[in-house]
Amino acid sequence: MANRPASSEMPLTCFHVGVARFSPRTAPRTDNITVEGIGPDKPLLFAHVKSFADFALRTLLPKATYARVNVHIRAGSTADEVHSSDDAVTGPVDWNKAYPSSFVIDLFDQSMAMMNDFELLLIVSHELVHVKQFALGHLRGRSDRIFWKWMSRECREPNYWLQPWEVEAHGLERILLHYYALMAEIPSPFDRFLNLRTTSDASVDLHNSDRL
Ligand SMILES: [Zn+2]
To answer: What's the whole-number mean pLDDT along residues 36-45?
Structure first.
Protein backbone atom coordinates (compact mmCIF):
# COMPACT_ATOMS: atom_id res chain seq x y z
CA MET A 1 0.00 0.00 0.00
CA ALA A 2 2.80 2.32 -0.80
CA ASN A 3 1.65 4.63 -3.51
CA ARG A 4 3.72 7.67 -4.25
CA PRO A 5 3.35 9.94 -7.26
CA ALA A 6 6.78 11.18 -8.36
CA SER A 7 5.82 14.79 -7.87
CA SER A 8 4.47 14.40 -4.35
CA GLU A 9 5.71 16.53 -1.53
CA MET A 10 4.70 14.70 1.57
CA PRO A 11 4.44 16.70 4.77
CA LEU A 12 6.82 15.59 7.49
CA THR A 13 5.35 15.02 10.89
CA CYS A 14 7.24 14.52 14.11
CA PHE A 15 6.38 11.31 15.86
CA HIS A 16 7.81 9.87 18.98
CA VAL A 17 8.52 6.25 18.23
CA GLY A 18 9.67 3.80 20.86
CA VAL A 19 13.27 3.67 19.75
CA ALA A 20 14.38 3.28 23.34
CA ARG A 21 12.94 -0.23 23.31
CA PHE A 22 15.52 -1.24 20.74
CA SER A 23 18.95 -2.15 21.95
CA PRO A 24 21.62 -3.08 19.40
CA ARG A 25 23.11 -5.29 22.12
CA THR A 26 20.11 -7.56 21.92
CA ALA A 27 20.73 -10.11 19.24
CA PRO A 28 18.08 -9.74 16.52
CA ARG A 29 15.77 -12.65 15.89
CA THR A 30 16.66 -14.07 12.54
CA ASP A 31 13.89 -16.61 12.12
CA ASN A 32 10.93 -14.24 11.99
CA ILE A 33 11.87 -12.21 8.93
CA THR A 34 12.55 -13.83 5.59
CA VAL A 35 13.62 -11.98 2.47
CA GLU A 36 13.20 -13.35 -1.02
CA GLY A 37 14.08 -11.89 -4.40
CA ILE A 38 17.03 -9.69 -3.49
CA GLY A 39 19.75 -11.58 -5.22
CA PRO A 40 23.31 -12.57 -4.35
CA ASP A 41 24.51 -9.54 -6.31
CA LYS A 42 23.16 -7.33 -3.51
CA PRO A 43 24.20 -9.02 -0.26
CA LEU A 44 24.47 -5.76 1.64
CA LEU A 45 20.99 -4.65 0.65
CA PHE A 46 19.64 -8.09 1.58
CA ALA A 47 21.26 -7.80 5.03
CA HIS A 48 19.96 -4.29 5.51
CA VAL A 49 16.39 -5.18 4.57
CA LYS A 50 16.46 -7.99 7.09
CA SER A 51 18.06 -6.07 9.92
CA PHE A 52 16.00 -2.95 9.22
CA ALA A 53 12.78 -4.99 9.34
CA ASP A 54 13.88 -6.40 12.68
CA PHE A 55 14.68 -2.92 14.00
CA ALA A 56 11.37 -1.47 12.76
CA LEU A 57 9.25 -4.26 14.21
CA ARG A 58 11.00 -4.06 17.58
CA THR A 59 10.44 -0.33 17.57
CA LEU A 60 6.79 -0.46 16.53
CA LEU A 61 5.52 -3.47 18.45
CA PRO A 62 5.25 -4.41 22.11
CA LYS A 63 7.66 -7.22 22.98
CA ALA A 64 4.99 -9.92 23.22
CA THR A 65 3.58 -9.03 19.79
CA TYR A 66 7.03 -8.82 18.26
CA ALA A 67 7.77 -12.29 19.56
CA ARG A 68 4.94 -13.90 17.59
CA VAL A 69 5.15 -11.93 14.33
CA ASN A 70 6.59 -13.41 11.14
CA VAL A 71 7.12 -11.39 7.99
CA HIS A 72 8.01 -12.65 4.54
CA ILE A 73 9.38 -9.88 2.30
CA ARG A 74 9.04 -10.91 -1.31
CA ALA A 75 10.80 -8.70 -3.82
CA GLY A 76 10.29 -8.77 -7.54
CA SER A 77 6.75 -10.09 -7.80
CA THR A 78 4.33 -8.76 -10.38
CA ALA A 79 1.39 -6.62 -9.31
CA ASP A 80 -2.05 -7.87 -10.22
CA GLU A 81 -4.76 -5.60 -11.57
CA VAL A 82 -6.01 -4.62 -8.11
CA HIS A 83 -2.54 -3.49 -7.02
CA SER A 84 -1.29 -2.14 -10.32
CA SER A 85 -0.81 1.41 -8.98
CA ASP A 86 1.09 0.29 -5.89
CA ASP A 87 4.83 -0.04 -5.35
CA ALA A 88 4.21 -2.67 -2.72
CA VAL A 89 1.43 -4.33 -0.80
CA THR A 90 1.21 -5.89 2.63
CA GLY A 91 -1.29 -8.34 3.97
CA PRO A 92 -1.75 -10.93 6.66
CA VAL A 93 -1.63 -14.51 5.47
CA ASP A 94 -5.02 -15.01 7.14
CA TRP A 95 -7.25 -11.97 6.60
CA ASN A 96 -9.91 -13.36 8.96
CA LYS A 97 -7.78 -13.11 12.09
CA ALA A 98 -8.31 -10.10 14.35
CA TYR A 99 -4.66 -10.24 15.43
CA PRO A 100 -2.76 -11.88 12.60
CA SER A 101 0.85 -12.86 13.15
CA SER A 102 2.08 -13.92 9.70
CA PHE A 103 2.47 -11.40 6.92
CA VAL A 104 3.66 -11.11 3.34
CA ILE A 105 5.10 -7.88 1.94
CA ASP A 106 5.24 -7.86 -1.85
CA LEU A 107 7.63 -5.39 -3.46
CA PHE A 108 6.58 -5.17 -7.07
CA ASP A 109 9.06 -5.64 -9.83
CA GLN A 110 8.02 -2.68 -11.94
CA SER A 111 8.69 -0.27 -9.08
CA MET A 112 11.87 -1.91 -7.83
CA ALA A 113 13.49 -1.40 -11.20
CA MET A 114 13.32 2.35 -10.63
CA MET A 115 14.38 2.42 -6.98
CA ASN A 116 17.73 2.91 -5.37
CA ASP A 117 18.56 1.02 -2.17
CA PHE A 118 17.22 3.62 0.21
CA GLU A 119 14.01 4.08 -1.71
CA LEU A 120 13.46 0.35 -1.42
CA LEU A 121 14.13 0.49 2.33
CA LEU A 122 11.69 3.37 2.57
CA ILE A 123 8.98 1.26 0.93
CA VAL A 124 9.79 -1.60 3.32
CA SER A 125 9.54 0.86 6.20
CA HIS A 126 6.10 1.99 5.04
CA GLU A 127 4.87 -1.56 4.68
CA LEU A 128 6.17 -2.54 8.12
CA VAL A 129 3.98 0.18 9.63
CA HIS A 130 1.04 -1.63 8.02
CA VAL A 131 2.30 -4.88 9.57
CA LYS A 132 2.22 -3.14 12.94
CA GLN A 133 -1.33 -1.92 12.28
CA PHE A 134 -2.58 -5.39 11.33
CA ALA A 135 -0.71 -7.14 14.16
CA LEU A 136 -2.15 -4.85 16.81
CA GLY A 137 -5.66 -5.15 15.39
CA HIS A 138 -5.78 -1.46 14.46
CA LEU A 139 -6.34 -2.22 10.79
CA ARG A 140 -8.56 -4.93 9.45
CA GLY A 141 -9.55 -5.50 5.90
CA ARG A 142 -10.30 -7.95 3.19
CA SER A 143 -7.78 -9.06 0.65
CA ASP A 144 -9.85 -7.44 -2.12
CA ARG A 145 -9.50 -4.10 -0.25
CA ILE A 146 -13.21 -3.33 -0.51
CA PHE A 147 -13.69 -3.19 3.21
CA TRP A 148 -11.48 -1.65 5.89
CA LYS A 149 -11.80 -1.11 9.60
CA TRP A 150 -9.54 1.29 11.45
CA MET A 151 -9.60 1.16 15.25
CA SER A 152 -12.69 -1.08 15.07
CA ARG A 153 -14.69 1.38 12.99
CA GLU A 154 -15.52 0.97 9.35
CA CYS A 155 -13.60 3.43 7.17
CA ARG A 156 -14.71 4.18 3.64
CA GLU A 157 -12.37 7.10 2.99
CA PRO A 158 -11.67 6.85 -0.76
CA ASN A 159 -8.73 9.26 -0.79
CA TYR A 160 -5.55 7.24 -0.31
CA TRP A 161 -3.74 10.17 1.34
CA LEU A 162 -6.47 10.65 3.93
CA GLN A 163 -6.88 7.02 4.95
CA PRO A 164 -5.73 6.97 8.59
CA TRP A 165 -3.50 3.92 8.15
CA GLU A 166 -1.73 5.64 5.23
CA VAL A 167 -1.35 8.89 7.15
CA GLU A 168 0.37 6.95 9.91
CA ALA A 169 2.52 4.90 7.53
CA HIS A 170 3.69 7.94 5.58
CA GLY A 171 4.34 9.75 8.86
CA LEU A 172 6.51 7.00 10.33
CA GLU A 173 8.32 5.59 7.29
CA ARG A 174 11.16 8.12 7.20
CA ILE A 175 11.75 8.51 10.91
CA LEU A 176 12.11 4.74 11.26
CA LEU A 177 14.66 4.58 8.46
CA HIS A 178 16.52 7.61 9.79
CA TYR A 179 16.84 6.06 13.25
CA TYR A 180 17.94 2.79 11.71
CA ALA A 181 20.65 4.54 9.70
CA LEU A 182 21.89 6.28 12.85
CA MET A 183 21.88 3.02 14.79
CA ALA A 184 23.58 1.04 12.00
CA GLU A 185 26.06 3.87 11.38
CA ILE A 186 25.31 4.11 7.69
CA PRO A 187 24.76 7.36 5.82
CA SER A 188 21.21 8.55 6.40
CA PRO A 189 19.41 9.97 3.39
CA PHE A 190 17.53 12.07 5.91
CA ASP A 191 20.43 13.93 7.49
CA ARG A 192 18.84 16.99 5.99
CA PHE A 193 15.61 15.66 7.43
CA LEU A 194 13.71 18.87 7.82
CA ASN A 195 14.64 20.01 4.34
CA LEU A 196 13.79 16.77 2.60
CA ARG A 197 11.28 17.33 -0.15
CA THR A 198 11.09 14.28 -2.37
CA THR A 199 12.30 10.71 -2.21
CA SER A 200 14.65 11.51 -5.09
CA ASP A 201 16.86 13.13 -2.44
CA ALA A 202 17.39 9.65 -1.04
CA SER A 203 20.19 8.90 -3.44
CA VAL A 204 22.79 7.46 -1.08
CA ASP A 205 24.00 4.14 -2.34
CA LEU A 206 24.40 1.54 0.39
CA HIS A 207 27.04 -0.21 -1.63
CA ASN A 208 29.33 2.76 -1.27
CA SER A 209 29.27 2.27 2.48
CA ASP A 210 31.71 -0.13 4.08
CA ARG A 211 29.45 -0.58 7.09
CA LEU A 212 26.60 -2.97 7.52
ZN1 LIG B 1 0.38 2.21 2.67
So the answer is: 89
Give CA–CA dist 42/3, Å, rounded: 25
Half-sphere exposure of 139 (CA within 13 A, CB side): 24
CA dist 6 and 178 (Å) reads: 21
Pairwise CA distance, residues 138 & 163, whole Å:
13
Looking at the structure of the chain, the number of domains it has is 1
- Ion ligand 1: residues, CB within 5 A, are 1, 166, 169
Query: Considering only 5-9, 94-98, 155-159, 190-194, which range has the smallest mean pLDDT?
Result: 5-9
Which element (helix H / strand E) includes 80? Answer: none
CA of 3 relative to ligand 1 center, distance in Å = 7
**Backbone φ/ψ region at 130: left (φ over 0), alpha (ψ -120 to 50), beta:** alpha
What's the pLDDT band for 27 if we cut at 50, 70, 90?
low
Q: How far is the CA of 7 from the centre of ligand 1 (A)?
A: 17
Q: pTM to 2 decimals?
A: 0.79
**For 165-211, what is each residue's pLDDT tens digit?**
999 999 999 999 988 988 888 877 776 553 444 444 444 455 544 44
Q: Whole domain around residue 136: which residue ranges? A: 28-204
Q: Is residue 38 part of a domain?
A: yes
d(CA 210, CA 189): 16
Q: How far is the CA of 210 from the centre of ligand 1 (A)?
A: 31
Q: Which CATH number fits the domain that encloses residue 121?
A: 3.40.390
